[in-house]
Amino acid sequence: MCSHESYQPEVLLEHAVLAEQVGFDVVTGADHFHPWVDDVSAASYVWTWFGAVAQATSRVELATSVTAPLFRYHPALIAQAAATVDRLSNGRFILGVGTGEAINEAPLGYAFPGYGERIARMREALTIMHSLLDGEKLDFDGEYYEARTAKLYSPPTGRVPVWMAAGGPKSATFAGDTCEGLITSVKDPAETVANIINPYREAATARGADTTVMATRWVVLAANDDEAWESLVSMRGLRAPGRLEVADPAVLRERADAMDRQEILSKYTIVRDLDQLTEAYLPLVTDVGADYVAIQVASADPADTIRRVGAEVLPVLRKAAESA
């Protein structure tokens, strides 16, 4: 996972190239307009960045994790962007979508409604995106979106899978009903399987669809708590109250800095070495049974961490997957 909230795009491009070189299979990036804090942060345009990554790499798949095709984008524009990256990468693109956060929509003047409207928008958005990515010329009259003879004249090279992020059973079931894959963040593996993965797989199976699960986990690799805090400095607002509703990263920074540091650190999995890092991710293979395991590691030296994970952690996870 290349953290667009933490590093500038030119640095993340180097990280993506390095990830391919050391053996990662996928490079992901989040589509943010604002970051989680305003003092030590970044927020580049992920679609431009993916174009550069597509040209600088040759093997890794590329995936948004995630984009919200609901407010500042018309869903047809996301379909066009996905198709373009797919062509530039020779068919390596995965479209990861989610229902969004106010921090990316409210700064541009959009109201950020409750879950009911957002999931209704997502249903229409998926209809539009799937239709266009499948090569259709589309006329669409929905409650939230319209399209008139819309068609992608630079279509994808093949089928672009759409994966949806879900944090609960309603979204997981929705993903199983409408998408080709699921993205979910794991805290407790057993709870994730029961509340998210099982509902997703049941819904997908009921419509005769295959299932794909990407499981993620935020981990901090640091020798001590001071180093962990420095590694998390650009992401500390992610654990502040109200993160889904707040539009201003300065507000999240103030809220995070008013909290006890240990309270924020306690919300992450903190490991001291690569053995502990491996142990943090193994349950996503052995217990969750994920098809893709997203390595989301904050550290003081991300390039060195990418190299070390490629050399020492990925082989263990792959061996575990072969035995699962």
TrEMBL record:
The EC number(s) this enzyme carries: 1.1.98.2
Superkingdom assignment: Bacteria
A Pfam family reported for this protein in Swiss-Prot or TrEMBL: Bac_luciferase
InterPro entries to which the protein is assigned, alphabetical: F420-G6PD/mer (IPR050564), F420_G6P_DH-rel (IPR019945), Luciferase-like_dom (IPR011251), Luciferase-like_sf (IPR036661)
Any one Gene Ontology molecular-function term assigned to this protein's record: glucose-6-phosphate dehydrogenase (coenzyme F420) activity
Signal peptide: none
Ranges of residues in domain Luciferase-like: 9-261
Keywords: Oxidoreductase
Keyword Mitochondrion on entry: no
NCBIfam families noted in UniProt: F420_G6P_family (TIGR03557)
Protein known as: Coenzyme F420-dependent glucose-6-phosphate dehydrogenase
